Amino acid sequence: MRIFLIGLILILSWNISFQQTSFKKKTVFQGFWWDYKNNNYTDGWTNYLVDLAPRLKAMGFDAIWIPPTIKNQNFGEKGVGYAPYDHYDLGDKFQKSDAKTRLGTKDELLRMIAVMHANGIEVIQDIVPNHIIGAGSDTGQGGQDPAAPTVPCTDKWKNFRYSCWETPALTQDSASYLAKKGRWPKNHQNFHPILGCNNCNLCDPNLNPICWQGFGPDIAYDDCAFGLSSNAIYNTNQATYSPYRNGGFGTNNGYMRKHLREWMIWYKKQTGFNGIRIDAVKHFQNEVSRDFLWNLQNLAGWATASDTMLAVGEWVGGKTELDNWTLAVEERSGTFDFGLRAFDGAGGLYSMIMGNGAFNLSTLPGAQQNRRFINVSGTRIHRTVPFVNNHDTYRPIVNTQGNITGWNTGQELSPHVDPREPRLASAYAVMHAMDGNPQSFFEDVFNVANTSQRFSHIPSNISQLPQHTDLANIIKLHGALTFKAGDYKVPSSQASFWNVVTSSTNNQDIIVIERSQNAIICATDNWATDQDCWIDTDFAIGTVLKDYSGGISTTTTVLGPQPGGSANRVNVKCRAVGYPSFTYSTSYSDHGVHYHGYAVWAPVGRQNEVDNYSRGPITTTQEWEMEDDLGDSHCESLVQGGRLPANSCSYRIVGKIFSKSGSSVNYDFIEDALETGVDNCLEFYYLTGEKLHCQCGTGTFSGSFTNDSTGWIIAKIRHNPGNGCDQTLICGGASDCTGMPSQKANVKLTYQAPATVNSVNYPATLPEMPSFWTGAGGDDDFTNLLNWEQCNKPDLINGKNVIFVNENAFGLNNGSSWANAFTSLEQALHSASFCENIDEIWVAKGTYLTNTNNDRTKYFTIPPGLKVYGGFPETGNPGWNDRNITLHETIMSADIGTQTDNTDNTYHVVYHPASLDTSRLDGFSIRYGHANGISTNQDKAGGIFNEGKIIIANCKITSCYASNGPSAILNKGSQAYLQLENVDIENNVSGISESIKNENNAVLKIDETVNVKP
Fold it and tell me: For residues 995 and 988, what is the distance between their CA atoms, to the nearest angstrom?
């Protein structure tokens, strides 16, 4: 891998002037607390965030930091994200006892990202490269390798095998687990220690933080960290294992490093996230971070993020350590500014908040890390992330309602700040004014501390989830007044600063930061005394400024330089922390005003910008890789993924998107480089089964369509057997894909989600999903669950597998229900002829033609052993007791040509081939067969030609003709057995004056209910 250095400007002070032409910054909301959950969204945190998104947009957030989204070890409750198990399981595989993660399903994750984008909010994905955990099946079988080193502080649980399309977890035994072929398998040599390679100490985080096993098997990114499991069945050579066919590994390209890089690119393409938060960067090599960051920013294809991508590493330490790591990764990432926050609880924002007004605010600029941004081609890209709280510094003890009763201080990496602290808003104003991408913690912004609704609130309901109005105001002003568009200056640290309150240059109780010519932010920790000062400013003489916090009602005007000075001057003020009254220091209730301890000065006339500020929508692009070592074919998974199978027209389900009504969906079907020139189809369906769009093409192809209804859209692919966008029938009827290869493909979709969604109204699956035949089971068995999308086989009817036919039906028209009935009896019979275990066909009132191709030799062919019943109502969802053959006449007609000319009708209406299984035809009017042909049997039996075992019951055979044989029925052959029950045969014409005839030792049984008339 080649590494390219970026020209950098070393930041040595906090008064920096740089002629930037643009800037890149984010205001980041941390969208979770440590053990996040809400009982209205059980194992569905992404749906919670979907419902919260419009409020985040209204506050002015640019980005949301979401927890790790890959499948975690299950500890009885799903892991919060930091106990990763399978990198390629985003809530779609059935592993660790469920398909879902704590955040929900993969479909729901992708929707959440798209909805955030629709609200103008970028998504910052948390990743955990340091460790994994959870080796073994759901019951732990197969997880241990006896050959793993026996050393202190680790164990032998280091066989990691994963479910996938080819190898679902059908059982939980050791053999099944160790044979799994899911992508990126891992053996004990991929973790510390590696005997003969890296025999490092795993027990002491200070002695060797890279090797410390504090969370689970500690990943080794060394070039020598590879080898075989001693007991796995699927045991690939790690020196050559390569899902992307890009060879083995070498120097600076070890097994784990190489596959981490490839996973990161896959992950970004699949989900469409915009940036990353990197967990525990102190605990693996800096060059590993630099490696995957460079690849994300340069080699991710269409998903390449460029240098502007927000990346932030979690390194708990002082400013020198933070700067050193930032430099080590070539400033491709920043860090959380633990120095400014004061990770050890001494100084910085922490002491400003907790110092009871005694903290010296003038020390804050010097507490920041130096490597805060980079300048690239005239663009200032902010890297550092200032913050007050996050999930690692804030670990409350809560009661059953979620109210805080104490603190787990032993779990906190740095002392927490209680959101009741009155100086919290002052600190937020400072960190938003400084360089960087300020991060707001969930429990700072929203009150779940004492509402008794932490686990039960609806996030869109402001009374159930109150917000901190001071913080919301600061966050919005940061965006609306474009703080970061101006250079960062601290006039309160300049010699020209004058404190009106003290009549001195004392700046301990006030800090004033100017974002040059955009805004002036002042803050204080003083409880009772409003602050008042004169400062130098870059604003032009005569500029009238107002305080957009609302605390100071009067304006101020910029004056010229003071005698002997060169800079313009302006007087600014800010309210004291305790003004006018501050009560929520003990109650957590919101104080309802916007100016406790801070002010934001900017030119008058911008209030409309503030009131209406929001970022525009972002288009979402997501790409699915369809390969057998991804996805899962287990019926309790999402049943998505897998390559297109050889010699088969079976569908593969790509996945779902959530699209806004009236918006365009753009798609790319991307063929694999090894299987080119194959004809395939890409189809799109609503959850209800309605086909929305389809395109077939050879090789790679693209297209678009307009979605006319907000909701889920399912993408599906298949080989094209030549019928184009006509749906493949159940059991593959009329579809022949012989000779087509097994084919990997990628599907890329670009779309716009709605900004506002009530997620409960749009579940990813319906209570009664339509049954869609995919054929993914690889056979023609109607009862094989895997042959049906999401294993949703049609329900048994009276214990029978039934296909439905109704000429007026809509829906899927695949016969799986009345709503999705075939409209063609011919197609239903044809499909049933391919299926195993179809018992019956039920047909609604109507007239059904033998074929629509004007082919006189194509008849209704009754498959052996099948029972076909007519006489059902054409509306509703009729059951067996609703059947009435008189009221709901069901006609089988041979009149395929000109309606007044029977000579172009089919020769027979019904044909039943020789077989040993008994079929039944019951409840039909059989009409208009015209047997006037010259070939064998084409001049006989205009009604029914039987060569097998069949019962004809409750039928009428009428208006049929035969020129040289029986007009109605010919029963012929040694296997022919025909039983007639309650059959009327009338108004038929025969050249030999016969209605029924037996030939060649056929058996015919006619009971007393049969009526035969000329």
Answer: 7
Q: What's the CA gap between 737 and 722, in Å, rounded?
A: 9
Q: Name the residue ranges covered by the structural domains of the chain.
A: 22-130+251-473, 486-611, 614-756, 794-1014
Which 3 state secondary structure label does DSSP give 198? strand
The residue whose two tokens read 């004291």 is: 576
Phi, psi of 510 (to 5 degrees): -145, 140
Distance CA 158, CA 135 (A): 6
Assign residue 639 a region: left if phi > 0, alpha if psi is -120 to 50, beta otherwise?
left
d(CA 265, CA 208): 29
Cα–Cα distances in Å, from 208 out to 201, 251, 325? 6, 23, 16
DSSP 221-281: -STT-----SS-SS---TTT--TTS-----TT--HHHHHHHHHHHHHHHHH---EEEETTG
- Cα gap 1003→981, rounded to integer Å: 15
Rounded Cα–Cα distance for residues 631 and 664 (Å) = 27
Rounded to whole angstroms, how far apart are CA atoms 492 and 522?
Answer: 9
Asked: is 614-756 a CATH 2.60.120.380 domain? The reply is yes
Segments in 125-205 forming alpha helices (H): 174-178
Q: Across the 1014 residues of the chain, what is the mean pLDDT of every consecutive 10-residue run? A: 34 45 90 98 98 98 98 93 98 98 99 99 98 97 97 96 98 98 98 88 91 94 96 96 85 93 98 98 98 97 96 96 98 98 93 96 97 94 97 98 96 94 95 98 96 97 93 96 95 98 97 98 96 98 97 97 95 91 54 78 97 95 99 98 96 98 98 93 94 96 97 97 80 78 98 98 90 92 93 93 95 89 94 91 98 95 97 97 98 95 96 95 98 94 98 98 97 97 97 93 95 89
User: Of the candidates 680, 685, 684, which has an alpha carbon nearest to the alpha carbon of residue 696?
Assistant: 680
Q: For residues 67 and 390, is the Cβ–Cβ distance under 8 A?
A: no
**Cα Rg of the chain (Å, integer):** 36
> What is the C-alpha separation between 89 and 630, in angstroms, rounded?
8
CATH of 486-611 among 1.10.1740.10, 2.40.50.140, 2.60.40.1180, 3.30.465.10: 2.60.40.1180
User: Class of 22-130+251-473 per CATH?
Assistant: alpha beta
At 357, give phi and psi (nearest 5°): 90, 0
Q: Give the count of beta carbons closer than 10 Å to the beta carbon of residue 40.
A: 16
Query: In the numeric block, which tokens belong to residue 927?
Result: 């009409």
Structural contact between residues 831 and 803, judged by C-beta atoms closer than 8 angstroms: yes
- The beta strands (E) that lie in 111-223 are given as 122-127
The token pair at 916 is 């040993």
Question: Is residue 332 within 8 Å of 290, Cβ to Cβ?
Answer: yes
User: What pTM was computed for the model?
Assistant: 0.92
